[in-house]
Write a structure and sequence with these properties.
Distance between the termini of chain A: 47 Å
Largest sheet of chain A: 7 strands, mixed
CATH topology of the largest domain in chain A: Rossmann fold
Helix content of chain A: 25-40%
Structural class of chain A: alpha/beta
Largest interface: A-B, 66 and 66 residues
Strand content of chain A: 15-25%
Radius of gyration of chain A: 16 Å
Number of domains of chain A: 2
Order of helices and strands of chain A: EHEEEEEHEHEHEEEHHHH
Number of helices of chain A: 8
CATH class of the largest domain in chain A: Alpha Beta
CATH architecture of the largest domain in chain A: 3-Layer(aba) Sandwich
Oligomer: homodimer
């Protein structure tokens, strides 16, 4: 039976949040991966340099088995109660086996009311925003709380998607995909978490983040 | 001084090959990252599910400082001597400080004649193709031979780009970007290299690759 995996995108998303998982999930057997947005057509990422041409709208995807939402500064304007993406996330969640997020995609799940009382991961620099929606932050790379899988910042989507691949199709299929994308990470530095990077580097990133959020 | 970084894309590319590095390089200070293709407009990835809307052509990018080419099954039809992308790669390479590839992007550098007598990385399943262009394969995650940085399969582009970021702007800037994308990889399995994955998983991936290359 085909598993429908909906990947939601929006203007101002962080591309790697969704393309990491996409590259894993699109290699699964018997899946229909649907990249969808509020509107058809051109959509620009949070760096302003890559444009997606989106073919499917949220209305085109009903009752997905898996939902994946990525993060990006662009989602801060989608957190209001009447936001169409939140309506769709809530409706989709009613049928999913797995509802998942990467990075600040968790804020969209939170704003949709799905993380109240749950443990969830998000980007390390957005903990307060996440907890404002009633969730408890975990610094785990991937948090699993019931059917909710939430990943840490940006690149964590690859780890999350491999875990999800194993849940959907078993460990060996996930291993084959990992080998297919040669995911044998060897970062040249040990700076992938605030603790490892140290206070000076953390401050550089916080300052850059604040500058970007100014109107 | 602004550093121009050209990321070449083409129909049938593997998106993560270029979006991984893009997410790193677009966070560098004082860079002009240009995503470019042979033609403007819509371009579809190797899974057929994501479409880029490309604004810039190769002709729009002259004398880049850095060139990055990703892989994907779609590049097998670009390896002929009169292929426009090869012309452009050769011309660009004349001015670059760094000429780089991810995954089978190395085949394009090879077909352009840039890897003769050099050590280079590529996807583990494409070693013979690479060596057909006069290069010597290395299983290193990232090979550095002169100004040529070549990465292993797909996800290796993130490691390569962090190394490149450090070469361009210093180690602390690279560390800050690593923390910004929370690149603290924790694969759920140890299957990212042929040796770790073992022969049964290797065979699964080889068989899937061969099926995809049949016309």
């Amino acid at each position: 039976m085909t598993t429908t995996i909906a990947i939601a995108v929006y203007p101002g998303l962080t591309l790697l949040d969704v393309i990491g998982p996409y590259q894993v999930l699109a290699l699964l057997p018997d899946v229909d991966v649907v990249v969808c947005a509020a509107e058809r057509g051109r959509l620009t990422d949070d760096r302003g340099l890559v444009h997606l041409d989106v073919e499917r709208t949220f209305d085109d995807v009903s009752a997905p088995d898996v939902l994946l939402v990525g993060g990006g500064f662009g989602n801060r304007r989608l957190l209001g109660a009447d936001s169409p993406i939140l309506e769709w996330i809530r409706a989709s969640d009613a049928t999913t086996s797995w509802t998942t997020s990467v990075c600040t995609g968790s804020l969209l799940l939170g704003a949709a009311g799905l993380l109240v009382g749950r443990t969830a991961s998000t980007h390390w620099n957005c903990v307060d925003l996440l907890e404002g929606f009633g969730a408890t932050y975990s610094s785990d790379r991937v948090s699993v709380d019931g059917k909710y899988l939430t990943g840490a910042g940006v690149s964590a989507g690859i780890d999350l998607a491999l875990q999800l691949a194993a849940l959907l199709r078993g460990d060996d299929v996930a291993r084959a995909i990992q080998l297919g994308i040669e995911y044998d990470p060897q970062p040249p530095f040990d700076a992938g978490s605030p603790a490892a990077a140290g206070p000076a580097i953390v401050e550089m990133v916080r300052a850059a983040g604040e500058a970007r959020q100014r109107p």
